[in-house]
Amino acid sequence: MTSPLDPVALTRDLIRCHSVTPADGGAMDIVQRALQGLGFACRRMRFGEIENLYARLGNARPNLCFAGHTDVVPVGDLAAWTRAPFEAALADGMLIGRGAVDMKSAIAAFIAAVDRRLARGALAGSISLLITGDEEGVAEDGTKAVVAALAAEGEVIDHCVVGEPTSSAALGDMIKIGRRGSIGASILVEGKQGHVAYPDRAANPVPVLIRLLARLQARRLDDGYEGFQPSNLEVTTIDVGNAATNVIPAAARTYLNIRFNPSHTGEALAAWLWDEARAAGEGFAGRITISPKISGEAFHTAPGAFTAVVAGAVRAVTGREPDLSTTGGTSDARFIRSLCPVVECGLVGATMHMVDERAPAAEIVALSDIYERLIDDYFAAFGG
């Protein structure tokens, strides 16, 4: 590739790759070629079906890492798109395509920023990129696996910027310095099927499930945590599957999710679910099974020198003072935080996962400018 790299052109190349999780569609090859052209040592790390890449330029500390993902969600209703989702069309200054916001654009913007920065001289440390193809999926063979492998090898990453689309209404109005944790739980109450006129011959699981959900909903988990909104429990499904009105069903199921702040841990919340299940099922001649899955713990990067560098870069380019937020869902930052402090900074996320996902080309360029300034300020603050 010629220098300087164009972040919009590189984003378009990436969008044209059909990389719906777990497919790669050639996206990782494009990233690797661009980085190798800048002198990065690139290492492909495949786990299961997932292509991952860890690339590093330099051996000295500090090591500033950029993390992102090339995989995207399915396109949904193809007929509803005004332009083909993998065409990467530019129309009226808007780049349209799956991944335009979430988050092929950020990867391209950072690579282009590194290209421009290297043209001005050597770095007082190292830059690395951790790129995965498994952020939108189950997230087991992506960043989580790469982080574990790097930690086992003793690789040191001092700070990390994740390119998720964190801005709310305007580029740079929000960066993420933490995320709430998430635990999901499938709950199965198994009783004994029977005739509604003879309840003594059956064991109805529905009242038990109702009691359990009532107990869970009755607890106010917390009133918030410094920098975090209150934790919340949401019931997403209740299923009995009973086609007859005169039959006591054999089983009842529910699924719930808890988004929690640092007041809790996933393990403690799972134990609470079991405690409430035992109380709700007292005297029940059946069985309750809970299958919890902790997809991430709550984490917080305390405001300090690193958050100041990221916020300062945003301010210098956009003129906006970013809100230091912990709102939103989970991201791969939840895995990287075990290695180093993490801040997320990216485009406006209004159209991510939507039909006609799109980003203004000018904002992709501006994001690249933010990243370039961030690199400069980071090594000025932390470089040897």
Describe, in plain words, how this protein is organized in 3D.
The chain is α+β, with helices and mostly antiparallel strands. Helices cover about 30% and strands about 25% of the residues. The protein contains 9 helices and 19 strands. α1 runs antiparallel to α3 and α7 packs antiparallel against α9. The chain is elongated and about 85 Å long.
Gross CATH architecture of the largest domain = 3-Layer(aba) Sandwich
Shape: elongated
Count the strands?
19
Instruction: Going across the biggest sheet, name each strand in turn.
Output: 1-2-6-3-7-18
Which descriptors would you attach to this protein?
2 domains, 384 residues, Alpha-Beta Plaits, 6-stranded mixed beta sheet, 19 strands, 30% helix, Aminopeptidase, 9 helices, alpha+beta
What's the structural blueprint in terms of helices and strands?
Elements: H1 7-15, H2 27-37, E1 41-44, E2 53-57, E3 63-69, E4 89-91, E5 94-96, H3 104-118, E6 126-132, H4 143-153, E7 159-162, E8 174-176, E9 178-179, E10 181-190, E11 194-195, H5 205-218, E12 232-239, E13 247-248, E14 251-260, H6 266-280, E15 287-296, E16 299-300, H7 305-318, E17 323-325, H8 333-336, E18 342-344, E19 358-360, H9 361-382
Helix pairs in contact: 1-3, 3-9, 5-6, 7-9
